[in-house]
Fold this sequence. Notes:
By secondary structure, this protein is an alpha/beta fold.
Amino acid sequence: MGDRAITPVRVQNVTIGEGTPKIIVPITGRTPGELHTQVEALTGVDVDLVEWRTDFYDTITDTASVVAQARDLAGQLAGIPLLATCRTRHEGGEADLTDEAYADLNVAVAESGAVDLVDVEYRRDRIAVDRIVGAAHARKVAVVASNHDFAGTPAKDEIVARLVAMQDLGADICKIAVMPHDAADVLTLLDATRTMHEEFADRPIVTMAMGGLGVVSRLAGQVFGSAATFGMVGTASAPGQVGAADLKVALTLLDRALATG
Ligand SMILES: O=C1C[C@@](O)(C(=O)O)C[C@@H](O)[C@@H]1O
C-alpha cells in the first residue's frame, strides 16, 4: 500500500513531514538565566526546532512573564522555530493547572507572536483544547496534539485511535510517547506508527517509545513514518532522549542508506 499524502507543516525555514525527521531540542530552565544558558549551548549544534517546556519555568502561573520569556527566547533563537509545551502532571510534566488555567496560558502563548507551534494535551477538557486550537490557528501557529503513557504501551489499535482522534480535533501534528517494558512494546509502537502513517494520517505524526529500550524508535522515524524526534543538549526532558549531535549522525546514516536503496 502506498503512503497517503501527508500535508507537511512549515514553520519558518523548517518543513516537518518531509525528508529526514526533524530534531527538536527541549529546554527546561527554571529561570530566564538558565534558559539563556541553555539556548547558548545550542550554538553549533544541528537543531531544527527548540521546545520550551514552560512547565519547568518558576513563574509559570504568571502568564505575562511566560509571554515575555517566550518573546526573549524567540529573539535569542533568531530564526530557529519555537514550540511551546506546558506538560502537565497527568502526562509526566511539572505543571499542575486547572483546565481553564491551562487553556488561558496556552492561548496567551499562542497569541504572543513569539512561538511557531504550541503543544496541546489532547485528553484535557475539550473546551480547553478547542480554545487553544482556535487561538493558535487564528495566529497561524501550528498545533502539536500530544499524549504520553508513562506506565506502559497501549495496544496498537489504541495508539492509532489516539493519533486519529488528535487529527480529528484539528491538530497539525499528532504526537504520542509510550513506555515500553519489552522489545515487543517497541515493535507495537513502531507498527502503530507505520499503520497510522500509511493508512490514516494526512499530516505529520511524531511517535516515540521512551527509556533505553525505546531509543531505536527515536532514530528510525524515517523508516516507520515519524516526522520528528527529540534530542537533548545538556538536559533530557524525557527518559531515553539521546544527545542531539549523536541523533543527527544516526539520522544522516539512515537517510543515506535509504537513498542508496
Ligand atoms: O512530547 C514530548 C516528547 C518527549 O516526552 C520525549 O519522550 O522525547 C519529550 C517532551 O519534552 C516532549 O514534549
